[in-house]
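Can anyone check this?
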Amino acid sequence: MNEDLSLLELAGEFLSGTLSDEVLGRFETRLLEDPAAKQAVDLWEGRMAAFLGRNANAALHAARKGRSPSAGSAQGGPPPEKSPKAWSMLAPGVSGMALHYDHLVGSMVYIARLEPGARLPTAEQGSPEDCLLVSGDFSLDEVTLRAGDDHHAPTSVIHSGGSSETGAVMLIRARDI
């Protein structure tokens, strides 16, 4: 999915730590030369910080720093994002990784990746969730989200039966009810 992303989507996936190693290297080079790329990253940093909150944003930042090609080779091991422990399979074509859980307020922030054609399971119950679409498309009910769109679901995004035609990366903030 990384090859056909817009600049906005590349910047969002760069900050989410979901770019392939090859695309990550090219985007890091582009950041040094292209003010528009830097501007897109700055835009996403503000959006993600506001959406995630301080602690979850710090967790995402730490995961991204640990994933950089230079950090992975310096540690002598694979990047954390490549580890089978980091991403869990949620449904066929859907994986996710918890970024932060706040026990005091009962909220969790996680990142989900949908492969092209993936469909989320449907559940009758769920907690309220907000999502910020980082890249791709995501359709649920009569709403189709694109990169940069956010959405509030009163009874869960991840159990909405939503689907993605092209694949998607999204940040999700769930609250206990």
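Reply from J.R.: I decoded it. The chain has two domains: 2-81, 84-175.
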